[in-house]
Amino acid sequence: MKKNMTIGEMWHYMVFQTKGYRRLQAAIVLGALTAAAVPYLNSVFYARILDFLLLSRYDAAVHAVIWMTISLLVLNLAAKGCERMVYHYCEPCEYEVKKRTAKKAFSMEYECVDRMETLTAFRRVRAGEQGMGGVQRQLEEIWHFFKELAGIVFAVGFVLFLFFRTDRTGESTAVSVFLPVLMLCAIGTVLALSSYFAKKDGKFKVETELKNEYNNTLGAYLLTLVNREENVKDIRLFGLKDYLYRKCLILQEGIGRMYTIEGCYSGRCQMAPAFATQMLAAFTYIYIAAKALSGSITIGEVTMYAGAVITMTAGVRELLNRYQSINYMNEYLDTYEEFITRPNMHYDGTLPIEKRDDNEYLLEFSHVTFRYPGTGQDILKNVSLTFHIGEKLALVGVNGAGKTTLIKLLCRLYEPTEGEIKLNGINIEKYDYEEYVQIFSVVFQDFKLYDFPLEENVACGMQVDDVKLWKVLGQTGLRECVEKMPDKQKTLLGHENGAGVLLSGGEAQKLAIARALYKDAPFIILDEPTAALDPFAEAEVYENFHTLTGNRTAVYISHRMSSCKFCDRIVVLEDGKILEEGNHDGLLAKKGRYYELYHAQEKYYSTAH
Description:
2 domains; ABC transporter transmembrane region fold; Rossmann fold; elongated; alpha/beta; 20 helices; 6-stranded mixed beta sheet; 4-stranded antiparallel beta sheet; 62% helix
């Protein structure tokens, strides 16, 4: 666990999280001071008014009431205004943090985002947020902490003033010396007990919340699981309703028991400080009464000073509770700050990509070896491969051969462990990353469509070229389907953002191909692009493969050997190495690995192939 935050660190945390909302910082300071001052100013005026009434100074009492009303009105308005400003800005601050996190995630290396420790850290952040709240809750806790701190400062001032309010002629030695010493000892005892038990309570609460992180994660997952329409069929056909209901019930009971135990423990921890506080209150009234009888303070000031002492001790307990909450939330929310401020390791190239109308971008792997970070196994081993301009290249091989990994390296999602990748003879790391990725259109196996309008899914943005859109929809066989949709190309996909349309697996895959074609990049990569298509649609894609890709360089990854007949060159990968390469007929004639793979699948080919 990280060390506890200091007051200075809380302030710096707030400044960091509220970049762009400078007024919030002033609101927290001013709001804390005014909110804390209200009860004490109230006590001062009450004391003055009571003293005036006892002395029959009614005019002075009326003036005091007027000034009290005006002063408290101003302070309360300022406190409430600052409070509303805090709450108003805290929520956007959370969104601002999420935006900075997303911006960082888009700019950092994919290999960092994909690491298990990064994924685990953000899973824990999400779980912690579900249990204790996010950045918004943390800022609100800091706001309340500063309010309690300001209140304690005011209270300490009142107590010190009380001790120095003496009338040597009327006070006995007990009142002037012994009682203040005993009073200080009593206050110290209450503060020590409050601090001790608040730390124990806070530690137990943190431990409870840490144990509950798994429950929060599981609860969120179960809620998503039972509310997603794609899960309905399995839940019904496999009779999962009772199973999932039982899991939810067990989870609820477990959480209930956990918080019941935490509540009982918290109650026991508060017993001793609460009892000590009540005893202190009694002792305080005795001491203040003695001061009043000796003439050191007025009758009106009795309630003022008594309230200040009690408020101080109660405020310390509340302050310590807030402090524990802040430190617990900081334990996992600090992941955001660490992530946002983490320096990038790569993607620091500055060379622009030459804009070429002829699409002549020559890419080549030169003795590339790659292993995933944190592992010792080479996925690619000394691979040298040239992607010829305008060529239709197929990468084939069994699962785990390294096909998709090779494409991820080509797209700079990862960096080679050894060797280099060149574009027109220059190492791709020297190119500006944003410009480099613009030369690729990729359809991965795990492509994603978004619950936005169909046209925005294809265009990857809100600016849509209708002519281009309908062209690629026609090329992929989706034109007729889209024309029948309720709002045609503007039809919403999915149900997350409204009553949209759910595409079939084949339609979704065609739309992903249409998106790749719409980008019109000089280098197109299709990773198992027909896996969800029926045999006729698949045959149509194969037959139109050259038409779809045009004069662009195309890489086609497939487990189906029959699809490779349409490619100019076939590269067979096995165990991270290039085993064979050539065209379909030539590789069959060699009767090597490609020949074995082809004939192993031959009996499953349809006549459409």
